[in-house]
Amino acid sequence: MSRLTRRSALGLTASAVAGLGLAGTAYAATASGPANGVVPAADGGHTGHGGMDHTGHDAPAPFDEVYQGRRIQGAPAPGGAHGHHGGYSVQIDGKELHLMRNADGTWISVVNHYETFANPRAVARAAVVELQGAALVPLV
Predict the structure, then answer these.
(1) Which has the higher per-residue pLDDT, 137 or 129?
(2) Could you tell me the maximum CA-CA distance found in the chain, to the nearest angstrom?
(3) Helix (H) or strand (E) holding 100
(4) Considering Cα of 121, then 122, then 127, then 128, what sign does the dihedral take?
(5) Per-residue DSSP letter, 43
(6) Where is the signal peptide (predicted)?
C-alpha cells in the first residue's frame, strides 16, 4: 500500500505550480499576438524598429507643467528609445526622473517603484509628492 509522504506531496505541489506557470506563460504569449511574434506592418513600410521614431504609436502625450511648485516635463524620447524608459523621458526641475514602463502598460519610477501609474504625468506628480521638496538626484 502506498502512503503519501510529505516529500511526495511537496513534489506534486511544486509540479502543479510549475505547470500552471508554464500554462499561463503560454496563454499570455498566444493571447497577445501571432504565434511567430511578427506583427504585419499596417503602413507597409514600417516592418521593424531600426531606430525609428515611435512617437505616434501609443506614446503618452507630452506635458510641461508646474506641479506643487516643481516643473515637470515629459515627452517621447528622441529616436524612440526602447528598453526600461519605454521610449519616454520625464524631468523634474530639469533633472531626469528614471522611469520604466511595465508589460501591462503601467509606469513606475525610481522614486515610487512599488506603486504603478497609468501614465508618465501621474508618475511625475507622485514623485514630486514623494520627494517633499527634496532635489531629484539622477541615477549614475
Answers:
(1) 129
(2) 75
(3) strand 99-101
(4) positive
(5) S
(6) 1-28
